[in-house]
Write a structure and sequence with these properties.
heterodimer; A: alpha+beta; 3 strands; elongated; B: mainly alpha; 79% helix
Chain lengths: 110, 324
């Protein structure tokens, strides 16, 4: 339950962070997310694509149909300059937030 | 073996209600994802049938996926919202300036509405087009009703008095025109319902007001050619109704949540129709109120019922889409 709520609030940052490393198509992105988080983040695919399309609508991503090595056409998502800027802001916010949370729940580490 | 996917994607497709090219792109993307997920499950040793089933389950409920995609993709720019409101604003201006009695103005405006609708239908099926289509479709609907009325009156006169007000060839012409015009209208309406029943409801929104106004004009014996000074007691209020229709349409286009759009039409159409009839009739009784509500219910919810029937008659048809 907590994980689901946390993921809901962080979906856009996570997607942008993965795509910062290079263009991915939807399934590849879901797999990469699972791999990087050691299986912690497992997207319900029905929410992955709406999130990607929402980011594209906000001009933070650009989706392009490209032909894969197999000859299959796939929609690859690229981060735009606006997306990189938004990601930098999100990361700053996340660092401040996680630092503050740690200070509250683990005061001995302060 | 792919029927599990086809059923799922068919369910998503029926609920997307987006432009065909948008729907095709979304469905291709989802299908590829399902295929890869199922392949992965099979490589992990899962039984193929179960792999397909699990991939579909992972994707989530088709209604939810389609609704989220609709909410993202069905929003419109301010430019489109203003474009959609333009035909209502034109009618508002026509009444506010009492120009509807000038035949030349009416011909120019009707021509413009028809031209934009036809070009829009051929080139794009964007949401802004449908309010234009309202008035273009109103022409064959109202003229065929008038033609049928003329034929009925001619027959009645012939039976009662032994002669009809017009020559027989005119009645033959009217008799041929009415079913032809209704066929064209029904054919267009069916295409709009197939695209999205809610857009068919949006198209039907001004019809109760137009019908009420035409009945009022007929009842009062007023017509084209009279000077604006002689008439126009109701023109100010009629202009306000069309202005309110323009605002409703612009809001409809700007918001993207489907439920909000449905509620907007269900609320605004009867209120505006009632206000229009209040203007035309003075103090409509309970019967008029019931007729208005029934008319609005048929026009707004009829397309939804037609769409539901069409879905029931082909519930398992595989979606036809490909980018290759």
């Amino acid at each position: 339950m907590h994980r689901k709520e946390l993921l809901k609030g962080s979906t856009e940052s996570l997607l942008l962070a993965v795509l910062e490393g290079g263009p991915h198509y939807g399934y590849q992105l879901a797999k990469e997310m699972e791999k990087r988080s050691s299986g912690y983040f497992r997207f319900k695919e029905g929410t992955l694509y709406p999130a990607l399309h929402r980011l594209e609508k906000a001009n933070l991503l650009e989706g392009k149909w490209e032909t894969a090595a197999s000859g299959q056409q796939r929609r690859y998502y690229h981060v735009t300059a606006q997306g990189l800027e938004a990601l930098a802001n999100m990361m700053d916010e996340w660092r401040s937030f996680s630092r503050a949370v740690n200070l509250v729940i683990q005061p001995e580490l302060a | 073996m792919l029927s599990e996917f086809e059923l799922y994607l068919g369910s998503v497709e029926r609920r997307l209600h987006l432009r065909p090219e948008q729907e095709r792109d979304i469905l291709v993307e989802l299908r590829d994802h399902l295929q890869e997920r199922a392949d992965d499950y099979r490589q992990q040793g899962m039984n193929p049938k179960l792999a397909f089933k699990q991939a579909v389950e992972d994707m989530g409920v088709p209604d939810d996926v389609a609704r989220r995609m609709y909410d993202i993709h069905s929003g419109n720019s301010w430019r489109d919202a203003i474009l959609a409101a333009t035909p209502h604003l034109t009618l508002a201006l026509l009444f506010a300036m009492h120009l509807w009695t000038r035949t030349a103005w009416v011909v120019v405006i009707v021509g413009m509405l028809a031209l934009v609708s036809l070009q829009g239908w051929r080139r794009t099926k964007s949401m802004w087009l449908y309010p234009w289509l309202s008035y273009t479709l109103a022409i064959p609907i109202l003229s065929s009703l008038a033609a049928m009325g003329a034929v009925a009156y001619g027959v009645w006169s012939l039976v009662q008095n032994g002669h009809a007000p017009l020559g027989i060839p005119y009645y033959i012409l009217f008799g041929l025109y009415a079913p032809f015009a209704l066929y064209i209208t029904a054919s267009m309406a069916s295409k709009v319902v197939r695209r999205d029943w809610l857009l068919a409801s949006l198209t039907a929104t001004p019809l109760p007001v137009l019908m009420g106004w035409l009945l009022y004009i007929q009842d009062e014996g007023r017509g084209f050619g009279e000077s604006p000074q002689q008439i126009g007691q109701t023109d100010g209020s009629t202009a306000l109704v069309f202005l309110a229709l323009a605002i409703t349409t612009a809001v409809f286009l700007r918001v993207s949540q489907r439920l909000f759009r449905i509620l907007l039409l269900i609320t605004a159409t009867p209120i505006l129709s009632f206000f229009a009839y209040l203007t035309f009739i003075g103090s409509p009784g309970l019967l008029t109120l019931i007729v208005i509500i029934a008319l609005c219910a048929v026009l707004l919810l009829g397309p939804a019922l037609l769409d539901a029937r069409a879905s029931q008659s082909s519930p398992t048809g595989p979606p036809a889409f490909s980018r290759q």
